[in-house]
Amino acid sequence: MKTITPLILLLFWAGPWVVSAQDIDQNILIEDIRTLSSDAMEGRAPMTAGSEKAGTYIRDRFESLGLSSQFPDFSQQFILEPDLGEEGMGVNILGFIPGTTTSEIILVLAHYDHLGKKGEVIYNGADDNASGTAAMLQMAAYFAENTPRHSMIFVATDAEEKGLLGARALIRDFPFSLNDIKVVVNMDMISRSEDQTLYAVGTRFYPEFRPFLEEAAGMSSIRLVLGNDGGPGEKDWSRASDHGPFHEKGVPFIYFGVEDHKDYHQPTDTFENIQQEFYTEACELILDTLIGIDQSINE
């Protein structure tokens, strides 16, 4: 869903010898993306048995981490019919960790749906977006063990591939005021890059988050690029994924993602094609950004 236009970007590269804080459990991270992108999940299309299996996997993890929720069984159901002209329900999965210092909220998103099956061919969606979903579970695990200053909401959204419907439903039925959201951090395709580059979109609109991104980049062995948010000569990913509906409402966001690759929306987007070291480093960088933002309090 990304728009391709010419590219002029700012680069922040720490070089190959700097490592981050290693708060990500790589073994669990890799097992999660392997499971979520397995044939058993059948591509996780909304309203399918594979989607239900993926949802159960995410809910079970939230429960094991001790997260609470404003919705029964962590599940925010929404009707697809008004949006799609078809019967059925989508399901967002929401976990909550209360903060200790401020009423502001940090919202962490990743869509867990993908394209499902076409005939007998499974579109596993490892990078898109089992990668973001597994990363979101790691972020939840960290803050479950390290109580945040801000309240944290972790959401696996459904029906992103059908037009960001899960994000739009979340906004319609958000359990707090949208004004309470300090930032939406969205992860969509973060597990592979031929040139070891992760993109962070949003600082053109919300430059207050630039220092946290730069600090996190300084602890990483991968390259972080700030841009792709519609500046002169840049691509515009400011509405490319589930952060888009929040941006339309004026809610600050940071979107993490990579360039589209040859396996994007193809049956070859499989676990075997992710780059495990890059993926782990990308998750560390995102977590370091979240930690920095959480530790900053508006007086």
UniProtKB/TrEMBL annotation:
Locate the Peptidase M28 domain: which residues? 92-288
Q: Which InterPro entries match?
A: M28_fam, Peptidase_M28
User: Where are the membrane-spanning stretches?
Assistant: none
Q: What is this protein called?
A: M28 family peptidase
User: What organism, scientifically named, is this protein from?
Assistant: Cyclobacterium jeungdonense
